[in-house]
Amino acid sequence: MRWLSMLWMLTACRSADEKVQKKEMASVIDIPAFIKAADHKRNAGEFASAVQHYDSLLAAASLTKEQEIYLVINREMCRLLTTDTLTTVSQDQLSDSVLAQQTVSGKLLKSVVDIRNGRSALKTLHEASATLRRTGFEASFEYFVVLEHLGWCHQMVHGETDSSYFYYKKALDMAGDFEVLSPFIPRLLVQLSEVAITNRDMVAALGYTEQGLRYQPANRDLHELLTLKATLLRRLEKFDSANYYYQLADEKIQLSGDTSSLAKLLRERALHEMIVNNDSLFRFQMMRLESLPTHFANNASVSTDRLYGFYHFLRGDAQASIDAYERAVAHFSKQKLPDIVQTTEAYWVLAYLYRQIGEYEKAEKNIFAAIVYFSPYKNTPFSWEVLVSPEVANWSYNFVNYQQLAEIELQRFRDDPGDRQNLNRSFEIYQLIDSLMFRQIRAVEEDALLMFLRIGRMVYSGAIEASFHLHQLTQDTAYLNRAHLYMERSKGLITYQDLLARNNEYFSEVPEEFRAKELQLKAQIAAMKRSYAYDSREMTMLLRKADDYYADMQDKYPDYYKAKYQINSDSYAHYAGMADAREATFVQYFVDDDYVYSLSYGGEGRFERVEMDTSVTTALKVVGTQLSKLPNRQDVEAKKAFMESSAQLYDKLIRPLGKIQKSLLVIPDGVLAYLPFEVLTKEVAVSFRDAPYLIRTCEVNYAPSLQIYSLSQHMQTSRTDEVVAYSFTKSLGELYALPGTKKEVALLDKIFSESDILLRTNEEITRQRLVDDLVSAGDIMHLGLHASSSLADKLENKIACYSSSGLVQDALYGYEIAPLSIRAHTVVLTACQSAFGPVVEGEGTYSLARAFKQAGVSNVVASLWNLSDGTTSTLVGSFYNALSQGKSASTSLSLAKRQYLKEADELMAHPHFWSGLVCQGQ
Fold first, then answer.
1. Is 760 in a helix, a strand, or coil?
2. Which of 198, 335, 533, 687 has the largest count of CB atoms under 10 Å?
3. How many whole angstroms separate alpha carbon 897 and alpha carbon 175?
4. For position 622, what pLDDT does the model report?
């Protein structure tokens, strides 16, 4: 509990006689030692005993003003804690001396009482805030406490992570400005980390945790930060490191006797052991949790039921899991301030389990309870009208629970396809989810987008299926529009937003200060929404400012406004028209566990799906395996398997699109991101050289999403005045030579002989020089370097180089490239695996190519596997020849591949040698 947050309380005056008596007694009492003993009782959870100790000191000792304040604070907070939230704390239980203080102090204490008992204190806190601002006390300790408790109330009572983040951040900024508040910084960083975890933004949470540990905090702040770090490492699947920090936190907590922190740690340790399948240690941690002191018995019971429920859930024992979670929910219903995350998790899991066993009414009842948990309809009977009402939607913002409800209705339709009502209900809920996401992206800080994308994948899987069924049944183009929006929002949104926010090359006419104003408004609106201040004068002014701002944006910068916020119902038609104007076919894919959906634009325009059965997965595996390794001329069976798989994938992925126009723009999804579509063949061929590859009949280009492709149309990509080329022509230190890159650079020098060419070779290729050149040099940048990626870690995409201090190997990582504003419009990465990386659900492939797209590069040519040094230089030469003649990057690469196939023999015509380079861009 926040002991130091209550330092604003003052104690009542004692009589002169009492003070004389206490002064005489003080000579024989070691006051600091007695305070330490009382604190020990408090930390051990023995709150009733701690109250007696504090009372004895207040009655029997002569204290400094600071000691008296400290003792009164801790006594009152222990009294609150003694109720364990099961008994409402009324004001007559509180010290008269505390209640007799100034108005703000009284409001703050009332707020703590309300929050502790699960009641909203936002109105009281906003009144206290207004009083302090009106009287000029915005730099006071009381104002700091108001900010922190506003964050706490939004987090613990309302479950509003965006608003709690805003107030915690304001309190943190204030603590940084005033040295006297610096001891509170670690605790605020704990709160910010917990908010980030709730938002599933583990990177931000780890950053806050590390920052907190750098302050070298003591006692509870240290315990919570160590536990948080361990939990984050566990969620990032760094299990050994997580175990180390759990053990370290355990040792520190045992030494201090902090039972409250121990309870939290044991819950996390038990969950950790459960996830790593260590049943014996899981049961040991559960035994420790169940043996905590009496005060924690109720919370331990809730925790053990929930943890056993999740244990059985992970192991597929539905009935045991249901029984345990039902007990946990019964405990939660008795608490005044139950853990929000644990409560809604319990409802969600129960709904999921009941759905799995076909008890749909019970599933609906539980998911209804989760959805209305923060609304005025909490504890009301199930009602469809309530579920889709604006009041509930505006309170909930809980996409996971709405997705569960939509999936329940969709499953009912799968079981009984003749009942269209369930399908329509499912579609209606998915529309509601989409509108909520759109509203939140526009109305709160950018972290809301990260939060949604982590759950958006499963949301849009069902939404696309519902749209598909309704389109098949009605042929209504409205369902094409919805499917288009869902597919677009299921991938690439982080990259898209980064392009607009970080790179001035896009919409450079929009001033930076104008963009910054939008972010400020988002943060302020997020903090005020759905609170008692929503109808306040301050909120009204904020909304008016926001309306004026967006009207100004739409008036002054219409293209920027449309790109960021305006989602039209005819967006499918817009892209279909764009495709036809370019004599192209665009196709979006969406892959889930059961189907591959394809939505094509331009030409015939179709919405189809094929089963993701073993034939498809096997064909993808055969093609992928053979493309990534050198072919064996003598392996006839491998050749036959490749040709059959290539033709099979053509039938599944290309033939459903109908007639393909002059070029094909592919928006891949999931495992399809690793497939070069140009190698697919219309029929089973017998020869690599003469096979009817897709590349022979149309150009093939790629993009993370249609929105990102659209942005590239704003870029001028015909300039070739400055060319920068990097090449390893000889082995130095730990990096070996790439002989083919010498030929690539020579061809580049010859083709662009009239351009200003900057060549960097060997020892010149240092990390700092590479960064400097990326942001300042060239229209075209050619990187013939070593690179690597890892499917296990999205942060491990990197380009090899030398350190600035000598021939010591160093690296430039993708996450370091992404924030740069790169000048070149075209970057060619003949480095190995530069388009390869882990596919992150909801965003796409985390590769070096993605990093360069984020950094504002319009055209990125990159590799899907380790390239052949010799044949790559041939392809690159033809590519640059076409590019120098004014052709687009995608056209140039397609022409280069066709030219290569004309000249190659049977072995060298194997797609391993020519299809590894792919183009994302114009």
1. strand
2. 533
3. 61
4. 94
Q: Which neighbouring-strand residues pair with 590?
A: 597
> 461-510 pLDDT, tens per residue?
899 999 999 999 999 999 999 999 889 888 877 677 667 655 555 677 88
What's the whole-number mean pLDDT along residues 665-687? 93
Phi, psi of 610 (to 5 degrees): -130, 155
Which pLDDT value is given to residue 527?
55
832 and 788 in contact (C-beta within 8 Å)? yes
Task: Find the radius of gyration of the CA atoms of the chain.
Answer: 32
Q: Considering the chain, what is the average pLDDT of its residues? A: 79
pLDDT band at 922 (very low <50, low <70, confident <90, very high): confident
- For the stretch 126-181, pLDDT in tens is 887 787 777 777 777 778 878 888 888 877 777 677 678 888 888 888 888 888 77
Which among 327, 347, 351 is positioned nearest to 407, based on CA atoms?
351
- What is the side-by-side strand order in the sheet with 699-702? 607-611, 595-601, 584-591, 663-667, 699-702, 917-920, 859-863, 826-829, 780-784, 722-727, 756-761
Token readout for 904 is 């190659």
Give the bridge partners for 664, in sequence order.
585, 700
Average pLDDT of 614-630? 92
Whether residue 884 contacts residue 750, with contact meaning beta carbons closer than 8 Å, is answered with no
Enumerate residues 6+ apart whose C-beta is below 8 A from 135.
none
**Cβ-based neighbour number of residue 86 at 10 Å:** 10
Largest CA distance in the chain: 109
**Between β-strands 663-667 and 584-591, what pairing exists: parallel, antiparallel or unpaired?**
parallel
Give the torsion sign (CA, 348, 350, 354, 360): negative
If 0-12 CB within 10 Å is exposed, 13-18 middle and 19+ buried, where does residue 551 land?
exposed
Cβ 796 vs Cβ 833: under 8 Å? no
Backbone angles phi, psi at 206, to 5 degrees: -65, -35
The tens digit of pLDDT for each residue in 867-916 reads 887 788 889 899 999 998 989 899 999 999 999 999 999 889 999 999 98
**CA-CA distances (angstroms) from residue 127 to 90, 108, 148, 170, 691?**
20, 10, 15, 18, 76
Q: Quote the CA–CA distance of 348 and 373 in Å, as a whole number.
A: 12
With a CB cutoff of 8 Å and minimum separation 6, the contacts of 207 are none
| Strand partners for 862 | 918
C-alpha 822/C-alpha 615 separation (Å) is 42
Supply the DSSP string of 374-386, one letter for each residue: TSTTTTPPP-HHH
Helix (H, G, I), strand (E, B) or coil at 849: helix
The phi, psi pair for 838, rounded to 5°, reads: -70, 140
Q: Do 264 and 242 meet the contact criterion of CB atoms below 8 Å apart?
A: no
Grouping H, G, I as helix, E, B as strand and the rest as coil, residue 592 is: coil
Task: Give every CB contact of residue 651 below 8 A, 6+ residues apart in sequence.
Answer: none
DSSP state of 588: E
CB of 666 closer than 8 Å to CB of 701: yes
The residue to which tokens 């009164």 are assigned:
72
Percent of the chain with pLDDT over 70: 79
φ/ψ (deg, to 5) at 276? -90, 10
DSSP state of 780: E
- Tell me if 57 sits within 8 A of 39, measured CB to CB: no
Q: How far apart are CA 230 and CA 269, in angstroms?
A: 9
Return the structure tokens found at 228: 């948080």
Q: Give 148-212 as a DSSP string.
A: HHHHHHHHHTS--HHHHHHHHHHHHHHHHH-GGGGGGHHHHHHHHHHHHHHTT-HHHHHHHHHHH
CA distances from 347 to 331, 351, 372, 476, 549 (A): 13, 6, 11, 36, 40
